[in-house]
What does this fold into?
Amino acid sequence: MMRNILRGLESKVVRRMNQRTEEADFKRKINKQGNRREQDHREVTERTRMP
It folds into this structure.
């Protein structure tokens, strides 16, 4: 009986941890894309600034 409860809790915790890492990876991915976009914009402005 107790073992089943513990197993249920364990799987819940593991699932929550996995979800957190997935969210973190997703945020990191978005951040990378955002940084890339910013970099492209900077390059374009530098090119247009040149006479």
